[in-house]
Each structure stands twice: as structure tokens, then as C-alpha cells.
Amino acid sequence: MLIDSHCHLDLAVFDGQRDELMVRCAEQGVSGFLVPATRFESWGKINHLVKRYPTWRVAYGLHPYFLREATLKQIDGLAEQCDTERVMAVGEIGLDCWPGAVDMDIQKAYLLRQLSVAKMLRLPVILHARKSYDLVLKCLRQGGFDRGGIVHAFNGSLEQAKRFTALGFVLGIGGTVTYPRAKKAHRVLASLDARDYVLETDSPDMPISGFQGQTNTPLSLPCIVQHIANIREEDVDQVTRQAYENLLSVFPKWNEDLL
Ligand SMILES: [Zn+2]
């Protein structure tokens, strides 16, 4: 029961290959996918695709990296958009402190507005936080947000990890841990409580070690699990089972639509 808790399978790079990719994933035991939206323009396409693929679950939101093309008014439609099929969370939302990123005050305004929608809908959130864990934590507190969710592609300290898990979040662990040089990520992963992580690939981004420059897909999930098992000195089945349980703790409705 391998679930990819963060993959952008709606993106154009997968057009024309999705059916085949879904078949290959099923063969490899990768049997569930959470596809979070990034731009407002992607909401319609995701809503269309989730009807086609019963193994998909989705989240809607405005990603901080793409806010230049967004308007706050688009958030007015978020609650209604989330009242559609198999929506697990609001996301992907957050703060991106990267050179060239949108002004931080603007990013915060979008984050706080979307947190309040999630709070109203009683949904968890998918957080994107690049070089901004402490700032995001501040916004969660400021917004009185206590629904938890996933901190996608977590690469912070153990201390920061604990601050998020105390607020009901789990940490998305992905391809970074497959790189031998990622010593800090290995150390943090080895020290995490077993209940604190879920699996993700961030496809088509974040290729695993040895596949740099290629389009990443959820097929790299078994390799990520193998690395997590090695680093945590657990067996693969144990990691797989634990990650699945952790996912269900954040998204209790994950299996609701399965017959
Ligand atoms: Zn993402």
C-alpha cells in the first residue's frame, strides 16, 4: 500500500502517458496519489482528471511560487472548489523565500486567507515551505490553524519537525534521502518518531539519486521507501505500513470513496 502523498500528475509533461503510468504504478504497488494544485488555472484540469482516475485524491489551492499570476479574489472560489470529488486538503499553499519570489507580505496574505478557508472547511493543508519554516509556523499560529496536514518535502531540523508535529502535521519524505550527501536529512529522518512521516515523490520534480535531469514519477516511491528503511534501520514492510497509517491519520476520508 504505497501512497504518493505529493505528485503533480496533472502537469502537461504527463499528458498522453497517464493511463500507462497508472498501470505501471499499480504493478509496482504504488496504489494511491495525492495531487495538489499549484495554479488557479489547474483546478479545472485536476477536477476533470480525478473523475478519470479512482486512485487519485486531490487538494486545491494557490502555490506561493506562482502568485504573480494569481488574485486574492480566486480564493473566494476555493471553498466551492473543495466541495467536489475526493478533496483531501487545501493545498499546495505556503511561503517560498527564494530569490525572485513574490513579496513576502503578499505571500503571507494568500497563505492566511487559504488557511482560514481550510479552517472553515475543517480540512488539513498541504504546506510548501522553502527556507521559511519558522515564518510558516508563525502564520499557522497567527491564523489559529489547528487542522494539521503535510509539510511537503520537509528538509528542516529535528527541532522544526517537532514544532510542526505538535500542530498535527506529518512530514513529507521524498527523493532527497536517496542522495548519499544529504547527511542532515538522513540524521533528521533517523530521529523522527515513526508516526511523523509520509511518502512523496513531488513528481515530476525532485528526481531520485542517479536519475537527475529526468522526469520523476511515482515509480520512484519503492526506491525512496528502501532508503528510508535503511536509514531508520527498519524493514521495508514496516516503513510502508507505518507511512500508510500516518497518511490515514491526516486524511481519515482517504478510502471513503472506494467501493
Ligand atoms: Zn508540489
TrEMBL record:
Keywords: Hydrolase, Metal-binding. It holds the Pfam family TatD_DNase. The keyword Hydrolase applies. GO terms for cellular component: cytosol. GO terms for molecular function: hydrolase activity, acting on ester bonds; metal ion binding. A divalent metal cation 2 binds at residues 128, 152. A divalent metal cation 1 binds at residues 6, 8, 92, 202. Belongs to the metallo-dependent hydrolases superfamily. TatD-type hydrolase family. This is TatD family deoxyribonuclease. The lineage of its organism: Bacteria, Pseudomonadati, Pseudomonadota, Gammaproteobacteria, Oceanospirillales.
